[in-house]
């Protein structure tokens, strides 16, 4: 596939993640963040393991546990804490800082150069998300802010390390390992820290099925495939599609208003995503040029 096709396919994952807020608020019981995260991760991971029949070898167990913690257990827990303690716009804006964090982490862990264009695109994207989601009277809670920043850092680290550590298996198997590891970490936490779930309704089951099969299993296979193929900074910028999708779904499904300022914010986000892809493309071109062997000079 071409790079453009890889980018468009990978962008589907954060676009699907944008439905999480709608599904959580409209279809899931409130007050069980860790339990919902465990029920989202573990069944999806076990299903993918059953399909692939591929378990991580012993040498990959430590890395798999760390990646499952960063990409799922820690990230989803902090994400729910931030969502409960902060207005949705503030939480999403803090999450959009992930792109900037990925650029810095990729420089330190992968040796990727920091380009002014990529930094500018990431900063502009944060501004666009803020215009899209933050209201003037948004309240700021210190614990919520810390959770939002921690969640962004956790996902950023998981993205970069998923690029650095590439096992010799398919993206389907790699996703199965991480989802299962994250779910196994979340399950005892849910049992210890949260009360038992009430009887689940049909709507609850439909919501969990969507978040598990589509919002976790399918979307993260696409995401980790993109992480392996696209530059880290470019992949991180695609994550900004999530708040755009969330606002559009709120407008279409829930009838929420969409102001001209929010429309401007959405356009800024989309423009920053496009600019981020072009800036990161330069890294790919430079890396390819350096990797091409020069012809030997004649004696």
From TrEMBL:
Membrane topology designation: Multi-pass membrane protein
Give TM regions. 32-52, 64-84, 90-110, 117-136, 142-162, 174-193, 205-223, 235-254
| Residues annotated as domain EamA | 7-133, 143-274
Instruction: Give the family from UniProt.
Output: Belongs to the EamA transporter family.
GO CC terms of this entry? membrane
Per UniProt, subcellular location reads as: Membrane
The keyword Translocase is annotated on this UniProt entry: no
Organism classification: Bacteria, Pseudomonadati, Pseudomonadota, Alphaproteobacteria, Rhodobacterales
Give the protein's recorded name. EamA family transporter
Keywords (A to Z) from UniProt: Membrane, Transmembrane, Transmembrane helix
Q: Which organism is it from?
A: Halovulum dunhuangense
A Pfam family assignment: EamA
Broad class of the protein's primary localization: membrane
Q: Which InterPro entries match?
A: AA-Vitamin_Transporters, EamA_dom, EmrE-like
SUPFAM superfamilies of this UniProt entry?
Multidrug resistance efflux transporter EmrE
What highest taxon heads this organism's lineage?
A: Bacteria
């Amino acid at each position: 596939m071409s790079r453009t096709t890889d980018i468009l396919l990978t962008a589907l994952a954060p676009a699907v993640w944008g439905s999480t807020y709608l599904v959580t608020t409209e279809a899931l019981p409130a007050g069980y963040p860790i339990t919902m995260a465990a029920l989202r991760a573990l069944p999806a991971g076990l299903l993918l393991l059953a399909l692939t029949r591929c378990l991580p070898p012993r040498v990959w167990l430590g890395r798999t546990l760390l990646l499952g913690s960063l990409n799922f257990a820690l990230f989803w827990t902090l994400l729910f804490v931030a969502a409960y303690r902060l207005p949705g716009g503030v939480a999403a804006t803090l999450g959009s800082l992930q792109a900037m964090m990925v650029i810095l982490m990729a420089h330190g862990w992968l040796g990727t150069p920091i380009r002014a264009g990529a930094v500018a695109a990431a900063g502009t994207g944060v501004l666009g998300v803020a215009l899209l989601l933050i209201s003037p009277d948004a309240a700021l809670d210190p614990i919520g802010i810390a959770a939002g920043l921690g969640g962004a850092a956790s996902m950023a680290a998981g993205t970069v390390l998923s690029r650095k550590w590439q096992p010799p298996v398919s993206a389907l198997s790699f996703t199965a390992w991480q989802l299962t590891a994250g779910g196994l970490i979340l399950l005892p936490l849910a049992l210890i820290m949260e009360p038992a779930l009430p009887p689940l309704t049909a709507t609850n089951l439909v919501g969990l099925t969507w978040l598990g099969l589509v919002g976790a299993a399918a979307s993260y296979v696409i995401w980790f495939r993109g992480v392996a193929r696209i530059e880290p900074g470019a992949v991180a910028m695609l994550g900004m599609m999530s708040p755009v999708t969330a606002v559009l779904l709120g407008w279409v499904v829930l009838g929420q208003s969409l102001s001209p300022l929010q429309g401007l914010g959405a356009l800024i986000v989309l423009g920053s995503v496009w600019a981020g892809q072009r800036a990161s493309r330069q890294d790919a071109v430079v890396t390819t040029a350096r990797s091409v062997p020069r012809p030997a000079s004649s004696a």
